[in-house]
C-alpha cells in the first residue's frame, strides 16, 4: 500500500486505489466470456499437440 505522511493525501490515495480496484474487477467480470473462449482454444490446441495418454486401468488389466 502507498503511504503518504499527510493523512488527507493518504485518505485520497486509499480512495483512489479502491476505485481503481472496483473498476478492474468490473472489467474482469465483463471479460469473462473472452477469457473462457481463449481458455477453451488453448485447451484444444494442447490436446492436439499432446501424445495420447495411457489409461491406467487398461494397463493394469493387461498384466
Automatic annotation (TrEMBL):
Residues 35-63 are annotated as: Disordered. This is Transposase. It comes from Bradyrhizobium agreste. The lineage of its organism: Bacteria, Pseudomonadati, Pseudomonadota, Alphaproteobacteria, Hyphomicrobiales.
